[in-house]
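Quick start: what a row looks like.
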Amino acid sequence: AAWAGGLALAWWRCRLADGVVIAGCGMAVVVAIAYLDWLGRVPELTVSQRIAAVLKEAGAREAALVHYKEPSLAWYAGERGITVHEAGESELFGGGGFAVVTRKGIAGMAEMPAGWETTGAVAARLYNARLLSTDILVIERRPEGATSK
């Protein structure tokens, strides 16, 4: 309120320089609030952070990015000591360990590889050619005979 009052008074008294300074300071406050508070809580902007947390909680040390190949995930996973690499669907048939896939990507596969189980999921909206709402799954393939945690 004090900002708006000061701005109105500066314009009313025809003090252009004062009005510009007051408006600029107010804009700086608005931008700071947006970047430091609001943007950090937007779910669409924290998908990679949430996936990295799921990988850490599941005990992953390495993960293959099969359907979700967002570069920022490498940063957030790296902060937690997890190495990630991009991979194709064929890696799901041969390897083990952890993989990051989408529910729609798994549903679209002709054949679901055996031995994988979901260890966590993150609801997300992905923006590519169109808005795509899906779950991003962290899946794990355990060696034969191994039990779940």
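That is the whole record. Strands lie at 62-65, 83-86, 97-102, 116-127, 131-141. The chain has a mean pLDDT of 82.
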